[in-house]
Amino acid sequence: MWTSNAFNLSSAWFAGFTVCASLIVSIGAQNLYVLRQAVRGEHVRACVAWCVFSDVMLITLGMLGMAQVLARYPELAYALTLGGAVFLLCYGLFALRRMMAAPDDGAADATEKGVPAPRGLMPVLATLAAITLLNPHVYLDTVLLMGSIGARQEGAERWSYVVGAASASFLWFVLLAAAGQRMKRLFANPRAWRIMDGITGVMMLGLAWWVAQSAWQMG
């Protein structure tokens, strides 16, 4: 009996880990932001902690019924999708503005040369929270898909599933932060920041277009 329970818990943990890993390993808005913060060496641990916490929170909400709520009220999903498109559009335009407004390499100090000035913890986490929660993709993947799979588990297996997902999330964001910190020397050159802002801006505008198309189809 104990062996059977341990096997079921391990299977649920593995399911949570593999599903979360398959969904999270991609270059999206949240991952780009964490990578940027890691390169800057700014509140990296807090960013990783928020990302793991938000994944656990959204998966748990999905298991407890939010997935059914979104499926039952399509107008709520439409509002989230439209808001996400607007946010991604603004974020992409701001990134392109940073790229265009950055002075030449010959400026006097680091800030003037295009290296971003430091920011406080709350503005960093507020932006990351907005990127996470205003992205409709997170509700499709984390809440609907992962939450629905978790809801099929029974008893303690549900929470083993959540722990597995949290393990995958933690591992991914720690690796992403480590990769960003290894890239610090590269980003000592202000031109690298301009390139990163350009890539971020183009990707965010592309995501905004994709999300807007989804909202148009839902409407």
UniProtKB/TrEMBL annotation:
<dbReference type="Pfam" id="PF01810">
    <property type="entry name" value="LysE"/>
</dbReference>
<keyword id="KW-0812">Transmembrane</keyword>
<feature type="transmembrane region" description="Helical">
    <location>
        <begin position="12"/>
        <end position="35"/>
    </location>
</feature>
<feature type="transmembrane region" description="Helical">
    <location>
        <begin position="121"/>
        <end position="139"/>
    </location>
</feature>
<feature type="transmembrane region" description="Helical">
    <location>
        <begin position="192"/>
        <end position="212"/>
    </location>
</feature>
<feature type="transmembrane region" description="Helical">
    <location>
        <begin position="159"/>
        <end position="180"/>
    </location>
</feature>
<keyword id="KW-1003">Cell membrane</keyword>
<protein>
    <submittedName>
        <fullName>LysE/ArgO family amino acid transporter</fullName>
    </submittedName>
</protein>
<feature type="transmembrane region" description="Helical">
    <location>
        <begin position="47"/>
        <end position="70"/>
    </location>
</feature>
<dbReference type="InterPro" id="IPR001123">
    <property type="entry name" value="LeuE-type"/>
</dbReference>
<keyword id="KW-0472">Membrane</keyword>
<feature type="transmembrane region" description="Helical">
    <location>
        <begin position="76"/>
        <end position="96"/>
    </location>
</feature>
<keyword id="KW-1133">Transmembrane helix</keyword>
